[in-house]
Amino acid sequence: MQATYSPRRVGNDAHALDLLSEAIARVERAAARAKDQGAVVLEWRAVTGLARLLEEAGRPDEARERLRAICGAADGLDSPELDEARRLLAVMQTCGEAGYMASCHEEGTRNG
Q: Could you tell me if residue 7 is inside a domain?
């Protein structure tokens, strides 16, 4: 089964933006801690989750940059977590660079 990606946008809801900002900060700390401890699989999981949060916060370029960093550093390695990061990056690149994120969201909703 192929994973689909359906970004949600929080819009201008101040409370939702505050919660999202807090979640991003916490996941960034988790990713940094995992990296510092050499727990690469946990780092990959955290960065993949972080990328989803960044996309939701309207920061797709940063999301793709974070995914590119782990995918590039792990070139030649394979794991389910890394496969998920690569799939997410591919979808984000296709949707974001083609400028049709809304249609990717609709497709993900239909398929998911």
A: no
Question: 73 in a domain, yes or no?
Answer: yes
* Host domain of residue 94: 14-111
pLDDT tens readout for residues 51-82: 999 999 999 999 999 999 999 888 788 899 99
Q: What is the 3-state secondary structure (H, E, C) of the chain?
A: CCCCCCCCCCCCCHHHHHHHHHHHHHHHHHHHHHHHCCCHHHHHHHHHHHHHHHHHCCCHHHHHHHHHHHHHHCCCCCCHHHHHHHHHHHHHHHHHHHCCHHHHHHHHHHHC
Q: What is the CA radius of gyration of the chain?
A: 14
* Longest pairwise C-alpha distance within the chain: 42
